[in-house]
Amino acid sequence: MLERINAFIEEYLSVLDRLNIRITDIVEIIVISFIVYQILAWVSQTRAWSLLKGLIVILGFVLLAAIFHMNTILWIVEKCLSIVVIAIVVVLQPELRRALEQLGRKNIFASLITPDAGKQSGRYSDRTIDEIVKASFAMGRVRTGALMVLERNESLTEYEKTGITVDAVVSSQLLINIFEHNTPLHDGAVIFRDNRVVSATCYLPLSDNRNLSKSLGTRHRAAVGISEATDSLTVVVSEENGKVSVAYGGELFSGLNQEGLREKLEMIQDKPQEETRRGWRRAKEAKVEK
Predict the structure, then answer these.
(1) Which residues are registered as beta bridge partners of 200?
(2) d(Cα 36, Cα 39) in Å, to the nearest integer?
(3) Rounded to the nearest 5 degrees, what angle is found at the Cα of 247, between the Cα atoms of 244 and 118?
(4) If DSSP codes are grouped into helix, strand and coil, which group holds residue 169?
(5) Which of the residues 48, 79, 131, 256 has the least number of beta carbons within 10 Å of its own beta carbon?
(6) What mean pLDDT do residues 261-267 have?
(7) Which of 220, 225, 251, 246 has its CA nearest to residue 235?
(8) Main-chain dihedrals φ then ψ at residue 121, nearest 5 degrees
(9) Of 208, 210, 233, 213, residue with least CA distance to 223
């Protein structure tokens, strides 16, 4: 039996030797395959997918022009090629920026060098979560709109600077007072860091996701926008219907009850990454079933 195995291995290695395939070639193929897969996965989730289909149609037309020797069309295509490349970069600028941000967010090399690099620097306490939940539903009952952003690993300093410094311990009374109608701080978002309210009336980027419901207002689009740009979690209270929602990872979870909101807030506490991933997967499955 062992002789057969050894003979098979020797025969297989001899074939590889005749093909002159090196270990580095195999590694190179794996790396290129991974990069191509990631690019295609990214393209399928952005406006680049529609653009790619349009480019395929144009390439088909150019191929026909080459087959039938339509030299004038080929000359025009050749002269416009550089302009087309620049136009694609301009059109896809938001998607390209988001892809680079996500690549930097993964922090691959830091996690290889220091295993603890991917862990959260700050942990939100149970008391902070209780106060946010209490304030959210208290404001929801009286139709008071609110936008609360919880910072995680990525700094929100650039958004914090657009608001007014608060630097106070989180409490439901404070949050309700901040978002009360016709008060100086009620317009904009509140940012939390390490169990403290650091800033209020902050401006957030709006999402340009076309899959979002047209019925969503600026507050919800801002919540999704900041969740696309950073790894933060945002709690939104609707002024129209009092419903409480959460935006995280570019997704919006709407119409939560107190337990649902608490569950999502607990997921950004200092827990193992795999456990957090499983929790968000269960939340998505529950949303689909609903």
Answers:
(1) 164
(2) 5
(3) 135
(4) strand
(5) 79
(6) 92
(7) 246
(8) -80, -30
(9) 233
